[in-house]
């Protein structure tokens, strides 16, 4: 943790000035001990088991940081083929990687479909594009929930005007389409936005995810 020691800013008692002199600037310094502690706080705070935590690659794609997270049994969430390559380079195994995104090319869809990672689709069209690959036997659905968010929300992704995710009213059609193609819908995923500081909105989103999850065919239920 960053603190002051003898009028010097330090991280874990190492003066930041000395780090800047050794490695030059700009320089990013991470406190791995603090990261470990925060990870334990999160795990201890969530009673549900089995529990899998996924780090969003878009938040920080520093390879050294991702390698450390992988060693701590944290999984990873990626949104682009480039992030998938970064995750694989950092040592994440296929069963540790979840991907969802938009505007994938045919070659990118094929790459993902054959990689053994967990796939989550954003739309009915994307569901069809992935299920045309014989390797795809199961998929998750990304949902755009019908909830109202505070005005200060950044990148809101809810309701019919959302740029990502299936509207709630399309979920049953997606499930039926997948069933006809012998593809299992094995979970739901939801992103509602950022800069949301009120827990009530997350509680409502979780309730929505659980309600939507109940619409699909019986299976091992997961909420991503």
UniProtKB/TrEMBL annotation:
Its cofactor is pyridoxal 5'-phosphate. Residues 48-212 form the Orn/DAP/Arg decarboxylase 2 N-terminal domain. Keywords: Pyridoxal phosphate. InterPro entries: Ala_racemase/Decarboxylase_C, De-COase2_N, PLP-binding_barrel. The keyword Acyltransferase does not apply. GO terms for biological process: lysine biosynthetic process via diaminopimelate. One of its GO terms (molecular function) is diaminopimelate decarboxylase activity. PANTHER family: DIAMINOPIMELATE DECARBOXYLASE, GROUP IV DECARBOXYLASE. This is Orn/DAP/Arg decarboxylase 2 N-terminal domain-containing protein.
């Amino acid at each position: 943790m960053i603190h002051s020691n003898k009028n010097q800013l330090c991280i874990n008692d190492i003066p930041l000035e000395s780090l800047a002199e050794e490695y030059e600037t700009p320089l990013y310094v991470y406190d791995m001990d603090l990261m470990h502690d925060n990870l334990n706080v999160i795990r201890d705070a969530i009673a549900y088991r089995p529990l899998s935590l996924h780090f969003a690659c878009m938040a920080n794609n520093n390879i050294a940081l991702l390698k450390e997270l992988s060693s701590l049994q944290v999984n990873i969430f990626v949104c682009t083929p480039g992030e998938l390559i970064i995750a694989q380079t950092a040592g994440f195994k296929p069963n540790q990687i979840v991907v969802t995104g938009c505007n994938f090319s045919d070659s990118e869809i094929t790459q993902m479909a054959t990689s053994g990672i967990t796939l989550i689709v954003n739309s009915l069209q994307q569901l069809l594009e992935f299920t045309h690959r014989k390797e795809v036997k199961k998929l998750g659905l990304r949902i755009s929930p019908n909830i109202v968010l505070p005005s200060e929300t950044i990148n809101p992704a809810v309701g019919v005007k959302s740029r990502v995710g299936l509207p709630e009213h399309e979920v049953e059609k997606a499930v039926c389409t997948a069933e006809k193609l012998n593809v299992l819908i094995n979970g739901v995923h939801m992103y509602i936005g950022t800069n949301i500081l009120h827990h009530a909105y997350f509680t409502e989103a979780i309730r929505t995810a659980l309600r939507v999850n109940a619409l699909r065919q019986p299976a091992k239920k997961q909420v991503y």
